[in-house]
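Students often ask why we bother encoding 3D structure as a string. The short answer is that it lets us treat folding as translation between two languages. Here is a chain of 307 residues written in the first language.
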Amino acid sequence: MSIQLVTTVAGLHTESARLLKAKQGTSQGLVPTMGALHEGHAALARTAVENNDVVVASIFVNPLQFGDAADLDRYPRTLDADLALLEEQGVDLAFAPSVEEVYPGGEPLVRITSGRLGEKWEGASRPGHFDGALTVVAKLLHYGMPAAGLPAGSAGTAGGSLPAYRAYFGQKDAQQLALVRRMAADLNFPVEIVGVPTVRADDGLALSSRNRFLSDDERDAALVLSRALRLLEERANAHEPLDLDSALAMVESQPLVELDYFDVVDPGTLEPLAENCRETPFRGEALALIAAKVGPVRLIDNVPLSS
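And here it is in the second language, the structure alphabet:
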């Protein structure tokens, strides 16, 4: 079956309910994206398709999370290619609304606030970014809720129960994933938030829609980010001191890379774990975060650490 494109919330509700009924489905998955899709997004879509009867992928470039209007204008829009990629993964519905559909009254007067968790790392470098991101994710989670399109008193399934609801986010945006999980838990969203591991190119660079803006020399330089993270991962797996300073020196030795931050943090709170990074053998669970500007392109990456 070919993918179906809908551009309104009403259309999304109608068609997702129709598909759930037709398939006698018991689960619905949502894959929120901003388009310019690549193999990392394909992995999200495949995971959702493997675990749900009906899958919706949204394609929406959210103006609220761009601090720079030029950056918003430059963000690639590749709808036809995006639809082809999603269809190849087996996605049922693509929801590609206009800005006016998502924000019918203009910029919302009330927004989700990311709080302390959103003020550090990416939030410190991009003030307001996570408030904008969480606001649109909250709206998308409401739009994609399977019960929203079902008739009153009917769950659309053979057993009469509400369909399971899951939303899929990439681990590459680790801080965003942590924030979405906290938002869903703190505000009682009836959805399971599923993290999907980062997809990398053969050379180790984390896939990103922004990689296309790197020159050949800049792309070569950007590989130092994943190499530094891999070094920490190898030390953690060997139960060795992480020696973050030597990994930091590796990054700073690359002249085309302008480092923003590089640290090891608690996966839930994102607070630094300084005492567990340098001289003592690593134990437990952690997340190594890195962000840098390579030429004109800001890149982020991370790797989970465990012992």
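Translate back mentally: Strands lie at 4-6, 27-33, 54-59, 93-95, 164-170, 192-196, 257-265, 285-294, 297-306. Keep this in mind for the problem set.
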